[in-house]
Amino acid sequence: MTNPSLLILPGDGIGPEVMAEVRKIIDWFGARRGIAFEVSEDLVGGAAYDAHGTPLHDDTMARAQSVDAVLLGAVGGPKYDVLDFSVKPERGLLRLRKEMDLYANLRPAQCFDALADFSSLKKEVVAGLDIMIVRELTSGVYFGEPRGIFTEGNERVGINTQRYTESEIARVARSAFELARRRGNKVCSMEKANVMESGVLWREVVQRIGDEEYPDVELSHMYADAGAMQLTRWPKQFDVIVTDNLFGDLLSDLAAMLTGSLGMLPSASLGAPMANGRPKALYEPVHGSAPDIAGQGKANPIACILSFAMALRYSFDLGAEADRLEGAVQAVLADGVRTADLMQAEGGSPVSTTQMGDAILAKL
Amino acid sequence: MTNPSLLILPGDGIGPEVMAEVRKIIDWFGARRGIAFEVSEDLVGGAAYDAHGTPLHDDTMARAQSVDAVLLGAVGGPKYDVLDFSVKPERGLLRLRKEMDLYANLRPAQCFDALADFSSLKKEVVAGLDIMIVRELTSGVYFGEPRGIFTEGNERVGINTQRYTESEIARVARSAFELARRRGNKVCSMEKANVMESGVLWREVVQRIGDEEYPDVELSHMYADAGAMQLTRWPKQFDVIVTDNLFGDLLSDLAAMLTGSLGMLPSASLGAPMANGRPKALYEPVHGSAPDIAGQGKANPIACILSFAMALRYSFDLGAEADRLEGAVQAVLADGVRTADLMQAEGGSPVSTTQMGDAILAKL
Ligand SMILES: CC(C)[C@H](C(=O)O)[C@@H](O)C(=O)O
Ligand SMILES: CC(C)[C@H](C(=O)O)[C@@H](O)C(=O)O
Questions:
Q1: Is the pLDDT score of B214 beyond 70?
Q2: Which of A170-179, A340-349, B176-185 is least confident?
Q3: Which residues does the annotation say bind NAD(+) (chains A, B) (predicted)?
Q4: Residues 6+ apart with CB under 8 A from B81
């Protein structure tokens, strides 16, 4: 059997820095646990634009399709703000999601015990928080046609199209129900069925899949605006939340911020199983490219490292190894090791990106 | 000169209860301050559906067009969940907004000193919070065509259309800039220009209006997902936020929940000036119809009363009278008078809807 293959796309801003720490972890698994990965690296986002005039080269796209999993750092930066919409760094990421058909975006929002004080929310509201947002990632208003800026009479009009087919809704609903079975067995689906017909269809299909295929999982529905409120008020009421691409974008970022430590949160974007049984998969931290601190050794590599842990779990069926890596992160935090983003006003001095990576390696 | 006219639409759930308290306040202004309103009352939402088979009768629509201001309670309830999309209670409210062309929805999120402990956020994060969200209310995905559920091949597809013209963006941007000049002089505009062309046009037009007409107002832009995060992390960084109909729906509810007291928050929906110079206007509390507590005398009437205060300020240019009413609310809260929704676990016993109304009257 050949080694599992990984394509690494560090991207822009702090992407390369945090990914360098992940490489150390990958090497450790090869050397110490006998899990050798075939690792290749390539460009995405602004870095790809600088080299090739496109945020994702066709060769890179082809490579992403052929590996077992893609690990991405972050894309974007002010330098690229002036670029035309069609070649913005984000288009590279969106093309990967779309062409690999990564329809289920898993965004855990977990509050680490050692960091519960760090949230802007009261400790009792977030301590022990552990929810999973499943965001539809390859359809909806992100990809619907027609789209663009058109001239009508004497003015311009900006148009995007929200669009969901029954099967698109059904498959992401199944992902959410499957996850719920392995967690708290509850799914809450969010849309605006009171205002949008796409939401009416969404609600109906999720309910049908629940009734027919997952009658054992508790299912509820909530309007997305109420969802934003309830996430803020008492997030622990939720287990798995399933929602569309655009609502998922806002709600998963909101949920991430509840934990107070964006630098800690990983994500997985999964598609259908490939010939080898593994799902098409891309893993990336929730945080962005943070151009303001890029290149200064200040970035927190944990979100990216935990994204690799998700890869171990979801792509390679190495749940015990993922636990081991997550345990090392917990242990380092319990020791009080902190990058700058994890510092409270109270003081102490922060460790660098590399020092944090090394501390986690040492715990492994 | 004729008396200013008000159309009252109590609607569903707790709507009638909270509106009854507002009627007392209105009467007080007539008797004690010589500000007599011509008040009429009519049905909207489920109540209108029950009576007429439509959530807004044409006669009611015509009346709403002819008065100086509309005051609405709340619409909706589980009883109406089974209704067809086209006659759901919400359609009544949406028709009012659309046909009166109430394009600027003003949603203040203010944290009352006496209630700062009440938020799920830490006190220092929300104490003194005072932000104003200006949500576009008559366009975007709420009204764009095509929309509906269609059959394509062997499955159905749900479609909605996000659509903004330059002039729709420009007029709501002006509302936001005008408000900012009377407040903290800062506007933050939110969209997803990195993903949606309608957001690209939004950003461009807001920037142009700012540059050309309001160079004195500080303008910034944020992606809506980052906006949701920043509202959660440190909401006091904002003064006025301007955003589209759908993002505004989520973000204004999120901002409302930051204050911890949804039962306190009013809103104004304003359109273009009428012949008498007053803007077309509808005022409503941010909270919904709360069917679970309807008819029990438990509802908090303050949001609805403060909505009337907004009417005094924005429709009738009676800022000093609005201050007086808002002051009475503050005074009652400072005295520790609380409806059930404002009770902490610590105890004390709540007052009823009527008692709260009477307490505010007494302070006036
Ligand atoms: C970078 C951007 C295109 C992206 C999105 O909007 O999906 C990001 O916000 C995310 O959530 O992964
Ligand atoms: C009741 C519903 C149609 C409405 C909306 O989505 O606009 C409500 O959520 C609001 O924000 O006023």
A1: yes
A2: A340-349
A3: 77-90, 288-300
A4: none
Distance of CA A225 to the CA centre of its chain: 22
The sign of the torsion formed by the CA atoms of A330, A334, A340, A343 equals positive
Q: Looking at residue A269, which CATH number applies to its domain?
A: 3.40.718.10
**What token pair was written down for B360?**
């505010």
* Token digits of residue B44: 């909207």
pLDDT at B31 over 70: yes
For residues A271 and A231, membership in a common domain is answered with: no
Whether A195 is in the pocket of ligand 2, judged by its Cβ within 6 Å, is yes
CA distance A124 to A39: 42
- What residues make up the domain containing A92? 1-110+264-364
Which amino acid, residue B262?
Answer: L
Q: In this structure, are strands B69-74 and B5-11 parallel, antiparallel, or unpaired? A: parallel
Judged against a pLDDT cut of 60, whether residue A251 lies above it is answered with yes
Instruction: Identify whether A119 is part of a domain.
Output: no
CA distance from start to end of chain B: 26
- C-beta separation of B150 from B181 below 8 A: no
Convert the pLDDT of each residue in A304-320 to its tens digit. 999 999 999 999 999 99
- Residues B252-274 have pLDDT tens digits of 999 999 988 888 999 999 999 99
Please name the amino acid found at residue A335: D
How much is the average pLDDT of B197-201? 97
Looking at the domain assignment, is residue A22 inside a domain? yes
Residue written as token pair 């609310």? B329
Q: Quote the CA–CA distance of B293 and A21 in Å, as a whole number.
A: 54
Tell whether the model's pLDDT for residue A346 goes beyond 80. Answer: no
| CB-side neighbour CA atoms (13 Å) of A191 | 29
Task: With cut-offs at 50, 70 and 90, classify the pLDDT of residue B11.
Answer: very high
Q: Is A229 in the pocket of ligand 2 (CB under 6 A)?
A: no
Q: Which residues lie below 8 Å from residue B362, measured CB to CB, with a gap of 6+?
A: none
- Per DSSP, B281 falls in state E
Beta strand pairing call for A240-243 and A186-191: parallel
Enumerate the active-site residues of B: 142, 192, 225, 249, 253
Domain boundary among A230, A258, A286: A258
Is B337 marked within a binding site? Answer: no
Q: Residue A168 is encoded by which pair of tokens? A: 């698109």
Buried b vs exposed e over A62-98: b needs ≥16 C-beta within 10 Å? ebbeebbbbbbbbbbbeebeeeebebbbbbbbbbbbb
Mean pLDDT of A267-275: 95
Determine if the peptide bond prior to B55 is cis (ω within 30°). no
Quick one: A144 and A254 in the same domain? yes
Q: Which of B144, B158, B256 sits opposite A201 (nearest CB)?
A: B158
| pLDDT for the residue A310 | 97
Q: Are B199 and B186 in contact (CB under 8 A)?
A: no
Which of B212, B206, B211, B198 minimizes the C-alpha distance to B171? B206
As a whole-number percent, the residues of chain B with pLDDT over 90 amount to 92
SS3 call for A131: strand
| pLDDT for residue B1 is more than 70 | no
Q: Which residue on chain B is closest to A254 by alpha carbon?
A: B229
The rounded distance, in Å, linking the Cα atoms of A352 and A17 is: 10
**B67 falls within a domain:** yes
Element (H, E) at A29: helix A15-33
Q: Whose CA is nearest to atom 3 of ligand 1?
A: A90
Hey, whose CA ends up nearest to atom 9 of ligand 1?
A249
Integer Cα distance of B229 and B242 in angstroms? 16
**Domains in chain B, number:** 1
